[in-house]
Amino acid sequence: MSEELNFRSPQRQSFKGVFVLFITDLLKNVRQNFIVLLLPFVNEKIRTDYLWIFLLILSSLLLFQFIYSYKSYLNYQFYIKKDALCLDHGVFKKSNLEIPFYRIQNISIEQNIIQRILGVVGLKIDTAGAKSSEVRIKALSEMMANDLKRELVEIKKTIDVPDETKKNTTVSTNQGTEPEHVLKLGFSQLLKVGISSNFFKGIGIIFLVLTSTYDMLSDLFNVFYDDDLNDELYRSIPKTLSFTLFMIFFILISGFIITMASVMFKYFNLSVLNRKEGFQVNYGLLKKENKFIKTQKTQIIERETNPIKKFFDISNVYVSQASSSRVNQKQKIGIVGVNDQQFHKIFQTLFKTDIDKQFYVARTDIRYLIRSFWFQVLMTLLFGLPTYFFIDPVVAFVIGSIIFIAVGMINYLTVIKSYVGYDALFLKIGSGSIHTKSSYIPTHKVQSISVRQSILQRSSDLSDLIINTAAGSKKINFIPYDKAITIMNNTNYNLHQTKEEWM
Fold it and tell me: Left, alpha or beta for 403 (phi > 0: left; psi -120 to 50: alpha)?
């Protein structure tokens, strides 16, 4: 640690943190009050009679926002006590947050576009057993962030590393091995990742933008003009099949482009380094991410693929680490563009064994389709009825048929690709439809495993299997009851036989 930095006494963020806080809060307020800011542009009366009042109020709010950000910067201090990292914060109500070192799960350095322009970085601390699972220090110099991270990591080592691991670490240190590059994603590989990504996420963004824009324009149109926007649209939109097909094509292409761009921006220059205690993962163009996968705290490793990824011989890998609450998709550490050899290397390093194993498998019964059928009908009505009333019955029939068949195929693929397998060391769970996922859980990481059977399942001799870990739960639906009991009993037996620690 640098001599001039003593984290035992209260420290403030970089003064540039004032502007980071100000710009971040300002952008959030602009998004929330977008319609109000548009009023002078859509109403002539406001522009002519009330423009100065509007600008005066806006200027006052900007000044108040800056004062608030400056006060927030002054009151935000952090320091290290004997057994905790302490944070003092608050503007109108001052608070003190103590994070015991044993609750700290992961420490990573981030840098979004605002922080990069201002020449600062953010430090994110993932915690367990606290009300909030994330703590962020938003504006530090790169040197200060690295020093604080280094000191916290060193303190953590003295607290929660077992004696056996300390011995192994000593040996590894004496060998003086350099960090090994497991994966470094070039532009061509990143392009393959973007092409093979789930572009339905991009389509969801388009629908969100279109819906928000429509609601906003509808409100403004109804307030300032006499006609109703719905009537105007109904009169102007062609009620033809060709127009509908064009819109579908436009949305699909736009969704693909948005997905490509978001993936390439997010995972730009991705690299994975193999270090003594796990993997260091770095990536990001507009927002730089620096994350660490600890071998000891890894609970579940998931490998995601689809037909296009298989063609390119790549997959996405997601690692879930121990947490006090259920780990959502955002909290998982993702590594994209991973080939078979790289995945085997990651798996072997994290779990100290090879992935090639023979599993006893129990598959989801085809009768699970009956439950999924109602979702199929609901999706058909959701898209078909608005089309029937607002566009054309023929178009509604075509769209409804397409949705019904597509959702039915997805449901069928979901059932046939759902299974659970086990051997003495691992549980393997299959899920997904077009995008399929294989999840591996070491037996000694399982905290509990149970079998549940509803009244309907009892008559068919089927059941659900629930597996709980420190990173959340996994559920396998409608598998044969006798196989579920066998997997539960064998897992519990192996769990009690092992001497491995779950963390």
Answer: alpha
Rg value, the chain, Cα: 27
> What three-state secondary structure class fits 189?
helix
Report pTM. 0.74
Q: What pLDDT sits at residue 196? A: 86
Q: Is 392 helix (H, G, I), strand (E, B) or coil?
A: coil
β-sheet with 472-480: strand ranges across: 446-452, 462-469, 472-480
**Which single residue is written with the structure tokens 């800011």?**
37
Angstrom distance (rounded) from CA 450 to CA 453 = 10
Residues 7 and 80 sit within 8 Å (Cβ to Cβ): yes
The sheet with strand 180-184 has its strands ordered as 134-140, 121-127, 104-111, 288-294, 278-283, 271-275, 180-184
CB 312 within 8 A of CB 305: no
Distance in angstroms (rounded) separating the CA atoms of residues 130 and 325: 9
CB of 323 closer than 8 Å to CB of 126:
yes
Contacts of 370 (CB under 8 A, 6+ apart): none
Going by CATH, does the domain composed of 17-160 fall within 2.30.29.30? yes
CA distances 360 to 302, 352, 483, 487, Å, are 19, 21, 9, 9
**Per-residue pLDDT tens digits for 365-386:** 999 998 888 888 888 888 788 8
Where do the domains of the chain lie? 17-160, 194-266, 368-415
